[in-house]
Structures are given as C-alpha cells and as structure tokens.
Design brief:
By secondary structure, the protein is mainly α. The chain has 3 helices and 2 strands, in the order H-E-E-H-H. A hairpin with a 5-residue loop joins strand 1 and strand 2.
Length: 161
C-alpha cells in the first residue's frame, strides 16, 4: 500500500522506507493468507509443537521445474541422436547399394570388352546373340552406371532426403 492507503501492484521493489506490514506480497514469495507465523527458535521440532515433516526447509518457488527441463533436454538429445543414427544408416545403405552397382557394372564392362559372344533373352524367351550395335548400346549404358556409382557421391544424390 502506498502512503495514502491505496493498493499498488508493481513488478518493482517498493521504495525504501516502506514498512514491512504494508507489503502484501513480494515477487517469488509464497503467498500467505494470514499473519506471518515466526519460525520456532528451538532445534527440536517436536518440542516446538510442529511435526518433523513440516520442520524441513520450504523449497524456493522459481516458476520453473528444473527436473522437467532436464528431462526435456534429455528427450531432445535422444531424438536428435536417433535422427542422426537413422540418417547414418540410410547413408550406409545407399553407399552399399552404390558399391554393389559399381562392382556389377565393372564386371559387365569387362565381359563386354573381352569380345566374347554374349547371348540375351528377348521378350518371347528366345536366345539372341548380341550384335555390335546392341553391344555398343550396352557399353554406353554401363559407362553411365560406372560414372554415377563408382565415383564420389554427388551433392544431389546425397541431399535426396
């Protein structure tokens, strides 16, 4: 209350010289509904007439729960680690697929370059010997696979996600 008896609500401290009885509530303090009860001066809580559970110091109310915040940080950290592990597993899977494609393409190119006659199966299930035109087309396709899968991964292939 101010000097004229009006209640004043403010988030700043009262001016110096304000009597303690005029301050109804201070920021961060537990609100009291009645007159303040002085703490007992004796060391034995039973002798003071209070149960042992109430003699413990009252925790300071800060408006935030440190345990809850710690649990939130822990959960965020675990979610981030799980996302990183999932991304790494996906990257490893893609790298293994690229390595397998590269190896198969190199073997196929070596076979085509050897000059051995190669037979393929057509849509009817009949065997056909690959002619020079088909061999050149297949070599061109295999060279494209080797360029895409045997070198370092391109930026566009890495950022597919």
């Amino acid at each position: 209350m101010d000097s004229s008896g009006n209640k004043v609500f403010s988030d700043t401290a009262p001016p110096p010289g304000t009597p303690e009885k005029s301050i109804l509530r201070t920021p961060g303090a537990v609100r009291q509904t009645g007159p303040a009860i002085p703490a007992p001066t004796g060391t034995d809580p039973a002798a003071a007439g209070q149960p042992a559970a109430q003699s413990a110091e009252v925790p300071k109310v800060t408006g935030r729960d440190e345990q809850l915040e710690a649990k939130k940080k822990q959960a965020e950290k675990q979610a981030q680690e799980a996302a990183q592990a999932k991304k790494k597993a996906e990257d490893d899977r893609i790298a293994a697929a690229r390595a397998g494609n590269c190896e198969r393409a190199k073997r196929a190119k070596a076979t085509l370059d050897s000059g051995v006659r190669i037979a393929t199966t057509n849509a009817k299930g009949e065997r056909e010997i690959m002619d020079d035109k088909a061999r050149a087309a297949e070599l061109q396709r295999i060279d494209g696979v080797i360029r895409s899968d045997c070198g370092p991964a391109s930026a566009s292939a890495q950022n597919v996600n």
